[in-house]
Every structure is written in C-alpha cells, then in structure tokens.
Amino acid sequence: MTSPLSSRPDTLTEAACVVLGEPSPAAKVDWSRRFAAAWADGRLTVIGQAQPPDRPSRPPSPQLRPPRDMPKRKPGGAEGRIAFIHAIAHIELNAIDLAWDIVARFTDENMPRAFFDDWVRVARDEAEHFDLLNRRLQDLDAAYGDHPAHDGLWEAAETTADDLLARLALVPMVLEARGLDTTPVAVRRFRAGGDDATATILERIGNEEIPHVAAGVRWFRFLCERRNIDPVATFHALTRRNFNGRLKPPFNDVARTRAGFGEEFYRPLSA
Ligand SMILES: [Fe+2]
Ligand SMILES: [Fe+2]
User: Fold this and answer.
1) Is the previous residue joined to 53 through a cis bond, with omega within 30 degrees of 0?
2) In-domain check, residue 25
3) Fewest CB within a 10 Å sphere: which of 47, 58, 156, 242?
4) Is 24 within a domain?
C-alpha cells in the first residue's frame, strides 16, 4: 500500500488527515485500524493540531451526484439488493471520513480526551462496517464503485464545518439516528428474501451504531452545558436551520433510548 503522506504521524490529528487524504477505500480502512489501535494502546498520545481538507480524497468511482440526481432504487431482485448494499457501503465510507474529520477539525474547542477516544472508536467501527459490506459486494460479484452514489453526507459535513455543536446535531443525532430507525426494516427485508449473510451484517451494524449516536448526544449535552444553553431547544433550532425537512417517523425508540437520546429531542420535529 502506498500513500503520499507519512504513514507514521506524530499526532492524532495528523493521523486523521492521513485517512482523509487517502483516496483508496481499502487503505482508509487499513489506516483507520492502525491509528485506532495506536491511540488505544498509547503509541499515539498527542492530539496536536492539523488542518483537515475541505473534502476527503475518494476513489475515481463511484461517480458522486447531488442526492436529487440519484436514480430511483428499484426494490427487490438481485440488482436491487446489490444497489442497496452499495448505498450503505457508501454511507459507511463517508462515516469513516466524518469521524476522522470531527477528530481533526474542532481542536479549538479544547474537548476532553474522552471525546477523542469516542470518535476514534467510531472511526474504527465505520472502517469495519465498510469492510464487511465491501466484502459482501465482492461475494455477490459486485464492487464498491459500480453504482453512482450521492454526496449528501459530505454536504452535511460542509454545512456544519464551522461549529462542533451543529456538526453533532446534524451528523450523529439526525443522520446516524435515522440509521437506527431504518436498519431493522432492512434486516427483516433481507432475511425474508433469504439473504441471511447480508441481514447478519446489517444487524451487527445497527447494534454498533447505537454507541455512535450515544457519543453524539453525550458531547452535544457537554457543549450545551459549557455554553450554558438548553440542549433540547438548541437541538431543535439547529435541526430546523441545517436539516432540510422534518424528521421522519416511525422512530426506533428502543435503540434511541439505549443511546441516551430522549424523545423530547426528536419527537417534536417529527413530520
Ligand atoms: Fe457504521
Ligand atoms: Fe456510525
């Protein structure tokens, strides 16, 4: 594996920028595993400061389109299943970059070390999620890059690049929490269709996303307390400002509760 950047970054934020600057998905996974292990076992200890790129490097395919230009997904059939797995793999690849971006971008907030521990673990989980789905695509004689993909997640990152509070509200608390609602439906659909291998992967991902939403809620509350503002009212205001449309029910209240995400946050915004 080759990378134009140093493979031995001295600081966590430099490590984050290595992943963000790496175009190959397989290498993003590999770097994420290595840097997360180095942070966990103390070979990497300094947070440091680094300037993350506005956009992460990505492979030449898939072609990225605005969400509104995406072809309508045809449900059912082998093609529909593969297109669905491809779409989730794309979300997980974005999630790797989003986690490293949150590590590198907001160091001016002087967040506690536990904040960095959480997002490094999230990055490592997202790398495993992408890898599982990418391997599943290969089992089905498909590959990541075969289908067009939308750029909505990075648009969300750009919208919230200047404020950690807005980033936490939009990415883990709106978008990742939405995954908690939709994943069980997809698991049932794949099981009913006889694709247990994909269902098992999606089920694991659904469970592992709960601590990601929990980290979002925890650090959102922490920042609100530090800024002396009301967390629920602030979440409502930020979601109305930055999220185009209302939150779509039904909600997975069980998973959201396990993430410490009370319904007073999301229920009043439901469409
Ligand atoms: Fe994930
Ligand atoms: Fe996640």
Assistant:
1) no
2) no
3) 242
4) no
